[in-house]
Amino acid sequence: MQLQYTEQQQQFRQSVRKWLAAHVPAQPLASLDTGEGFAEHRQWERTLKSGNWGMVTWPEQFGGRGCDLIEWLIFEEEYYRADAPLRVSQNGIFLLGPTLMEFGTEAQKQRFLPPMAAGDEIWAQSWSEPNAGSDMAAIRARATLVTGGEQSYYLLSGQKTWSSRAVFADWAFGLFRTDPDSSRHLGLSFILYPLKAPGVTIRPIRQLDGEAGFAEIFLDEVRVPVKQRLGAAGQGWQIAMATAGFERGLMLRSPARFQRTAQRLLELFRANQDRLPATARAQVVQAYLDAEAYCLNTYYTASRLMQGGKIGPETSANKIFWSELDRAMHRTALSILGARGELSGMRGDAVDDGRWLDGYLFSLAGPIYAGSNEIQRNIIAERCLGLPRA
Amino acid sequence: MKYSATSLLSVASACRGPDVQFSPTQDQLELREAARNYLRASCTAKYLTRRVAGGPEVADGWSGLVEMGLPGYLVSTTAGGLGMDAPGFALVAEESGYVALPEPLIEVAGVAAPLLDQLAGQQALAAEVCTGRVRVIPAHPLNPFFNQADPTDPVLLLGDEIRLVEPLSGLAGLDSIDPLRNLRRFDAIQGGGAVLARGDEAVALTQSAIQRGAVFTAAELLGLSAAMIDKATAYAGERKQFGKVIGSYQAIKHHLANAFVRLEFARPVVYRAAACLGQDAADLWVAQAKIAAIDTAIEAAEIAIQVHGAMGYTFEVELHLWMKRAWALAGLWGDRNHHLARVENALLSKNLATGPAATFCNHG
User: Fold this and answer.
1) What CATH class has A253-384?
2) Which of B28, B253, B267 is the best mutation test for A, with the most CBs of A within 10 A?
3) Which of A356, A380, A367, A373 is nearest to A284 (CA)?
4) For domain A123-234, which CATH number applies: 2.30.130.110, 2.40.110.10, 3.40.50.720, 3.40.50.150?
5) How high does pLDDT run on average in chain B?
């Protein structure tokens, strides 16, 4: 147990810092849930790629840097320190990318990874259905196999929902029932499909902030070649669980994000200190403590994984911790802002361009998406503590 | 069960460069394993109950620790110790908390012995602590009461003058909520005794002794928390209501999951403090560790008693001994407010570097 960066890690940090200082846009980009903002964020992905900073954890053979987890954490720290834009390619780089590398064929990797890395193909996820939310195994959307040798294809039919990025993205991945007689976790397959294909209808859903951050996807006999199935037919649940593990685990929310928010909260507190009671101070200090705890836990898990450990159900604790921390920090900020907290960023009078209000709205989604926190608590109780299923 | 220290030291002395690595070394793991096996076999709930009842048939709990070399864990090998480091001892402290060990292991091995080892001329005394011939109990005004397990133990008085005060047999005891702590009043310590250090040296040694006391107590609280979660989980897996074990209900599951989450996120905070003692930010990081551990233990205790229901409110199950120890240790070597004030000062007054990239000392 020792906690000092190596010289090589310090140099790595300096090179990230230098590159970001020269390339991060001076003005914040428009929201990535608008057409204009989506295009700007896609352009930023291309800029990242040009410096080979797009997918630092990917192996070099797929256009990444082959960074280990400590280097990834350093990269993220510098990324948030520089206030760089959100990653519109997140679904691809952190979820589908690693899943493809683990379960994809060579041909699938060659076909999908390079355009994903280049920002040319941006991915949406499509797990949930109207009647399959927390109970994801209740999926009904089906993929019907039409056999014809090399020309075999699936026809996708059904409805997906809460599909992040689907309004503007190019491709989506999701689970479909390939065995019509199956139920629950069996008989599902993991399928990749283009969102511009005939038979796909996208209905944007306005989120709490008014933007169309996610959508419903209606699929009506969408023709998809069998080679766009990831893994074997019926293996979909297992693959999706691996993907969800990446999501809840280390990669979805790097600690730097919350440390940066805690730091901003401290600045906000300092600017308003004279009129605030001691309880506000205590909440701000708690935000700092918890953001640090989240960061240390991530380094701790990274150490364990680098020693050959596996990511397990304890990552559910991660998801609970960061989502509730994020909500608490933004709630504290809004309480410091008081009456000014009501102003949204649209008209230019809001403190910090309405960032705290936007952030609070988004933080309310945290305990719901990527598996609600109630589901995560069940997972911890059953798989970490060994309590019986209901 | 004698633990062979020499076989470990060849591994321990291998030189390593800097690294960001939370995983324990092989020898830290082996010693933790040995301590765990010994403590869980010897310091059982039944044993604790007998200790509380008192009487001559209760086995001495210290000699077994001495046989394992634990009092000398942090003492250099030249003085007869194991020559191990603080992060390793934090793991042992966790194990001692898990069994609610009723011995002053943190005080003697974590605080006093390494201080004596660093003092010119006191290595012989440190060696006697290792052999178990003498047990030195540290005392400092930060702790208005201290746990003097036995009135024949000499007291190491910390401060801007470090003194060794001979046995305080005349001191009246105080009642703790924890029946396994023998409290003495700090302000009853009389003058006298041999001066071991003065001035800057005494101040520096005292400061690091306090930091060790706080961080190892924090580690002990983690162990207590883990034990309380395990006890409540076991109870929830047995107790039936409405025809099912109560642990199958989400209301119970979510309580225990909350305790689990807190513990998961406190542990690395304590480990960082233990691994970074002596660095510039050590004081801040120790404060964070103690706060995290206190919050974890207090919540684990509240959840554990809730899950046990009325049983938890009785002497019928042993949970109360763990809860009481947690409450006692929460105030030791700086209570929550003491440490929170230190964090606040660092954050708000001193304009300390915070945010991404300020987690470890040499971020560059």
Assistant:
1) mainly alpha
2) B253
3) A356
4) 2.40.110.10
5) 91
